[in-house]
Amino acid sequence: xxxxxxxxxLGGLGFLIIQAAKATEIGLNSSATGSMVxxxxxxxxxxxxxxxxxxxxxxxxxxxAYSGDGVTGARLNPMGVSFVQNYISRNKxxxxxxxxxxxxxxxxxxxxxxxxGVPKEMKYLAVIESGLxxxxxxxxxxxxxxxxMPAAAVQYGLKINRGNDERLDYFKSTHAAARMLxxxxxxxxxxxxxxxxxxxxxxxxxxxxxxxxxxxxxxxLQYHLPNESMNHVKKFIGTHYIFEGxxxxxxxxxxxxxxxxVTAPSLNDEEMNSSSAxxxxxxxxxxxxxxxxxxxxxxxxxxNPAFDHKIALEGKYLLRLPTPxxxxxxxxxxxxxxxxxxxxxxTAEAGTK
Length: 353
Hints:
The protein has 18 helices and 4 strands. It has about 350 residues and is mainly α.
């Protein structure tokens, strides 16, 4: 955490300077990140638009948003329902078609984001920033699938010169975005505020916090943000629902996430009795652990929710595995940690070359 705090201090200072251009442009009610997906609504008094293409799917998405009856148990805050309803109706058909051609990009982003401890669902930020177009460019100068401004791109390790602009490189720009998102999460500890700051800069988020009386709840401070940043967060939530069929830890506030973790489906008695827990510290990778103990991702995630995210930010975790698998882990934990670090360092270096 000492390293994370040091990075956060440097990153915070850099953000205030680097994102100044974004903040200015947003003040003029224009997109600082050059989002290429233009279908949006005001989110204040929108009427629900019917969807004749697939009314059942539309109804299921909205039911999940209202009731939180999906796997994650996440519910959509009532203040976001109207906007998300309209956004899903307008964009669902195009985004569902994107699932096929975008799969290789999503698979790569999943791997990179997970290695950095960032929830893989944050890849949907690239969808609303650029429509996943590598050559997307806004009039403000934001460029690439993650819509990096030049100064921010350089700060996070991307090279820009006459013959090569690494903002256009899916792999390298995803590593840079993961580092940027990590810095923002260290600063705010809330993914909705991270999304707002990614779009409008931390300066605008800090100002909104002050103007709302110190609240760090997005739904409380949202109207103190520039309209573009406020709606950017809601677009992400809507996009998440379209692709995932429900919400998750990146679509709720920090306070809502605490409630979500408390009420999340827990292990049953049989699973608890046949498993063991072990305190670990260090940058372990879930992928490497699963490889060594031969456990599938669904089971691992059930026993260890948000593992990569928490281990990356906190450096420790109470690992729980079926007892036979835990015995393997304990016997090979040093090998697993060593390989985990090699994977993390190797991919990070590859992302900056």
